[in-house]
Design a protein that fits this description.
261 residues; single chain; 6-stranded mixed β-sheet; alpha/beta; globular; Rossmann fold
Length: 261
Amino acid sequence: MSDVASNGAAHDIWDTLRRSTQSRIGLGRSGDALPTTRVLEFGTAHAAARDAVHTPLDARALAGRIDGLGLGTPLLVTSRAGDRSEYLRRPDLGRAPADGALDVLSDSNADIGIVLADGLSPRALDDHGVQLLQALHQRLRGYSIAPLVIATQARVALGDHIGAALGVDTVLVLIGERPGLSVADSVGIYLTHNPMVGCTDAQRNCVSNIHPPEGLGYDQAAQVVAALVAGAREIGRSGVDLKDMTGAGNQIEGAGPALPT
C-alpha cells in the first residue's frame, strides 16, 4: 500500500473514532509538532475552561428564570468565600456558609431540599440548571420539596449546612463540575440523606457528567436520582451502601456511531 493510501486509511479510522468520543485522539503531526489546527483547538478549549471557572454566576437572573417556571422564588445563600479568587484558593471556605447566610432558611420539614450551586463551573449551572430542575421535579412528584436554594461560591459540603437548616430528609446539590479540555459545562448531582454538618464524601452519592446531548440527559439523570432517593429512604442512609440499579446512568444521549468490526 502506498504512503498516500496508508495515510488516508489512518485518517478515516481516526475520523470514525472521534465521532464516538470527546477526547482528543489522533491529533496527527506537522513535522515534529502538532498541526496548527489542533494547537488552536487546544487553546480554545483551555480558554473556555478558564472562563467557565472564573465567570461568576448571576444568581438573581437564574432565580428569575426559575420563578418564571412556577417553581417558586429560590432563596440565595453564599459561602464564606468572598469572591472567585478566594473560592479557588480556599476550598474550605466554600464548604461553610457566610455569617448570617442561613438566616433566610427555616425548617421546612420537607422530604427533599434542592440546592443549585455554582461550583467550579457556574456556566454549567447557567446552561443546564433550569432544565435539570424541571426534570427532577417531574421525577420527584411524590415527595414534598423544600424552598429552592441557589448557593454561590459553593462547594458540595455547603449543602449539608443548607439541608440541616431546611430540616429535610435528603438534600440534592446540583453543582457545576470542574471543567476539562473536552467539557466545560458539566453538572453533577450530589445526594446526601440525613444531611448534617460534617458528612463525608462516603455518605454521598453522585450522578455526574450531565450535559446533553454529549453527556447524560436531564431525564436520565433525574431517573437515577429518583431511584437513589427511594433507596436512601428505604435503607436509611446514602453513600457507599446505596447503588444505582436503574442502568439509566449508562445511557448517554447523542452517542457516536458504532465502530466497524
